[in-house]
């Protein structure tokens, strides 16, 4: 009798199982694409920084340039550790996690490019999966702004805000740069949209002469 019952439910159980496995596979592919994309952008930024430092450096300044490069590589290591250490099944405290992330982004990406970073982060807790995917999205937006928003500006600023409002977390990345036509282009845009869908988040972007502002709206429970 039990085998007959199991056979009768196969048409229900198997599609659900296949759908679940498909979702997991798509999620993994999405994160993997983001990792490759992030590494490519990281190496681009690092290469530009090295070229700038060593082109300007005199012989006596070479050691200082090497020290700056070493500190930046260490900061990139901290950044990737935060983005990849997602095995914790428990909830993550939002404020210390994103303060560390903003510090690593500032030291690794923004400060070498002469960009100031301001951060205002509220306290709270998020499931690890949501927290890390939101961190990937924030990193993508900050890195994109650093690459494209400030071709010739001495007072460059990126401000990061994270707040819990009316049952949703609002994560905003705003710059005072030239004003983009959209949050991201190409591969970065597709990855960002895919990450947003994976945590049921929405993206809102606005750009003008005062710069670009992108807000991620993520429900507290996705």
Could you outline the blueprint of secondary structure elements for this entry?
Layout: H1 2-56, H2 62-84, E1 91-93, H3 94-110, E2 116-121, E3 125-127, H4 128-148, E4 157-165, E5 168-175, H5 186-198, E6 202-208, E7 211-219
Parallel strand pairs: 2-4
Antiparallel strand pairs: 1-3, 4-5, 5-7, 6-7
What does this molecule look like?
This protein is of the alpha+beta class. The protein has one domain: 2-Layer Sandwich (Heat Shock Protein 90), CATH 3.30.565.10. The protein contains 5 helices and 7 strands. β6 and β7 (211-219) form a beta hairpin. α4 packs antiparallel against α5 (186-198). The longest helix is centred in the first third of the chain and has 55 residues, at 2-56. The protein is globular and about 55 Å long. It is an enzyme of class 2 (transferase). Residues 129-222 form the Histidine kinase/HSP90-like ATPase domain.
Give short descriptive properties of this protein.
Sig_transdc_His_kin_sub2_dim/P, 20% strand, globular, 7 strands, two-stranded antiparallel sheet, five-stranded mixed sheet, HATPase_dom, disordered N terminus, Heat Shock Protein 90, phosphoprotein, alpha+beta, 222 residues, 5 helices, single chain, HATPase_C_sf
Q: Cα distance, first to last residue?
A: 39 Å
Low-confidence stretches are 1-22
Structural class: alpha+beta
Domain count: the total is 1
Q: Number of helical runs?
A: 5
Question: Which CATH architecture would you pick?
Answer: 2-Layer Sandwich
Which sequence of strands runs across the widest sheet? 2-4-5-7-6
* CATH uppermost class: Alpha Beta
Helix content: 55-70%
Count the beta strands.
Answer: 7
What's the gyration radius in Å? Answer: 21 Å
Q: Any idea what the CATH superfamily is called?
A: Histidine kinase-like ATPase, C-terminal domain
What is the molecular shape? globular
Order of helices and strands: HHEHEEHEEHEE
Indicate the mean pLDDT: 75
Strand content bin:
15-25%
The CATH topology turns out to be Heat Shock Protein 90
Largest sheet: 5 strands, mixed
Domain Histidine kinase/HSP90-like ATPase: 129-222
Protein name: histidine kinase
Catalytic activity: ATP + protein L-histidine = ADP + protein N-phospho-L-histidine
Keywords: ATP-binding, Kinase, Nucleotide-binding, Phosphoprotein, Transferase
